[in-house]
Amino acid sequence: MAAMPTTLAEAMEKLSRLTNYERTRPDGPRAFDLSRMEALLRRLGSPERRLGARVVQVAGTKGKGSTARYLDAIFRAAHLRTGRYLSPHLESVRERIAIDGELIGEADFAARVETILAAAGPATTFFEALTAVACLHFADAGTEATVLEVGLGGRLDATTAAPSTHTVITEISFASDDDALARDEPLLATLATASLRTRIATGPHAGERWRRLGDRIE
To answer: What's the total number of domains in the chain?
Structure first.
C-alpha cells in the first residue's frame, strides 16, 4: 500500500527533530557552517540559482521583516512574480514562505519538507531546511524577484548560500539582549557584512554603528 501524503503537522514534527537555533542560541560562530547548506542545495539541483534576476538579502538586527515585506510589495507593484522568505513566524510556519504574497500551501510545504529531509545531512538545522524549502518552492514557481531575510548574522547564514544581486542592511544594535552574537561587536561585524559581496543599501539609522562596523570588517 502506498504511503499516505505527509501532513503539515507531520512535516513540523519531523522538522522539530532538527537543531533549532531560534529556540536554543549557539555558543559561538562554530555552530554555523555555510558549506553544509551549500551541499544540501547541490543535492537538490541548486534551486538557489533559479530565484530570478533580482535577489535581495536583508540583514541587520532590527527591522528586517518589515523591510523584506516592503521590498516584496514594491516588486509586486512592478508586476514581477515574487518570492518572500521571512523568519521567524508568528502562528504558522507557512508565513515564512510566500509567492506573490500568497503563503505556501500546506500540502506543498509538507511535500517539500519530505524532499529536503531526504537530501539533508545529519547536521542540517531547522533554519537550513526551511531555507531550502523556500529556495525549491521559489525556483519551481519561476520567481522573477526574491527577497530573503537573514536569520542570524549574515556571512554564515543559510540565506547567504543563495547568490544575491542586492543586499539591504537595516539597523544594527549591540548588547540589545542576552544574545551572545548581539554582544560580540567584532563577530557581528564579520557576520553581518556578507552583503558586501553585492550592491548594498543601509537604513537611515545605521549611522555611527555602521561606521564602527566598517572599521572592524576583516
So the answer is: 1
